[in-house]
Design a protein that fits this description.
The protein contains ten helices and 14 strands. The chain is of the alpha/beta class. The chain has two domains: 199 residues, Alpha-Beta Complex (DHBP synthase); 85 residues, Rossmann fold (3-Layer(aba) Sandwich). It has a ten-stranded mixed β-sheet, sandwiched between helices. The protein starts with a helix and ends with a helix. Bound molecules: threonylcarbamoyladenylate and magnesium ion. Magnesium ion binds next to loops.
Amino acid sequence: MINKGAAIIKQGGLVAFPTETVYGLGADASNQQACLNIFKAKGRPSNNPLIVHVDSIKKARDLVLFNDDAIKLTEFWPGPLTMVLPKKAGAQIADCVTAGLATVAIRIPADKIAMELIKASGRPIAAPSANKSGRLSATTYQHVKESFGDEVFILKSDTKIAYGLESTIIDLSTSTPTILRYGFITPEAIKNVLGKEIAIASDLSEIKAPGMLHKHYAPKTKLRLNAVNLKTGEVGLNFASSELNTNGSMNLSKNGDLVEAAANLFDYLHQLDKFSLEHGIAIIAVAPIPDTGVGLAINDRLRRAAE
Ligand code: TXA
Ligand code: MG
């Protein structure tokens, strides 16, 4: 299966593959036409750049310019951290991948299938999350199948995806390292490794990537956040000991474990969305999630999904 996927990538086709965060929809990052087809398949605005996935720091160095902070943060690679760095002159990356920016978002994924695919294809792979633009991210083979049907070849993971939330994105091309998207690697962890203060692009005006502003991760059913009780016509998404209970309600983590909750988030939203559509339920009520550690990333996704 990996070899078939690699052959498709080399021929300029699209391959969906698991990573430790979410499924990606990949193409050869050096092939403009192939990468344009990613935008087309997702219905993604062309001003929203893609993340490039490589299998070694050496390969990353062929594409971007590392600074001291970037070198320190390679401690998190392979893993769910994406670094935005200046594009190297002559780097083989198609223009549409960076949406014309002078920087590249790059990471080494910590997933066996993703790494084997990159290795076997011998190409850097540009891959956004494998969902239609603006919709819930895909954390299972079935989610990808429902979005893309037979349009793309899908590599299936034999295990549950480890994290279930997209990578943390940090911009290292500016004077102060700036978090552009929360993820599993927390601001605290990054600060500790860098040994200095970092910024968080919470101000919308500071966000460089236009695609990050928009409503995102949205199920078809409306969300009501920080719900403390359930109203008629709602189904509940609980956390820890919350009791938004009715037929169909789910709990992200009964133990109040944020890591477990993150891993379940997109899958449970997919399930509750389906349930709501089938049962004529208008709103998914979501219990409060603590705004600490991985909770920052969960709340970020929920807020944008509810926008
Ligand atoms: O975990 C992940 O990061 C997953 C897996 C597949 O690796 N990928 C993912 O890609 O979440 P996507 O396209 O859903 O999100 C990529 C984000 C977008 O918000 C985009 O705006 C931002 O990365 N981005 C890409 N290149 C950028 C750049 N040069 N500067 C700033 N932001 C950038
Ligand atoms: Mg996405």
